[in-house]
Each structure stands twice: as structure tokens, then as C-alpha cells.
Amino acid sequence: MFNLLARYTEGKVDLVGCSECILAPSCRVTCAFREAVEKFFLILDRYNLAGVMVQGEPAQLRRILTAETLLR
Prior knowledge:
- Helix content is 56%, strand content 0%.
- It is mainly α.
- Helix 1 (2-10) crosses helix 2.
């Protein structure tokens, strides 16, 4: 769940700006960066939202992450 929230709020992650680089079509580093980003999100799979929240703060998070906020 935390992984999905992170992916949604971060959008497409271009770690070092490879999408704008003229060398990207022939560069293998872009694959390494894509793999690194994927591993980052896989690590986040180990966590849930309740586990990363500071105790006593879930109500504040609920106010911030209402359905309206996420649909913007």
C-alpha cells in the first residue's frame, strides 16, 4: 500500500533526467537507473502507511490525503 501511495504521489520517477538526455537512446546507464528506481519501490513494499506514520498523527494524514486531494 505504501508503495502505491509513493508511486502515485511521485508520478514517473526519472532519477537523473535521462528522459531529457540526448544520449539516452544508446546509453545503458538508463537501464541501471530504471532498475534502481524499481528496487526503491520494491523496498517500500515492505512498509505500510501505518508503520511509517508518527504515532498519533494518522488523523492529520487523513486530512491531507482525502479523496479530493488525491484526485487533483
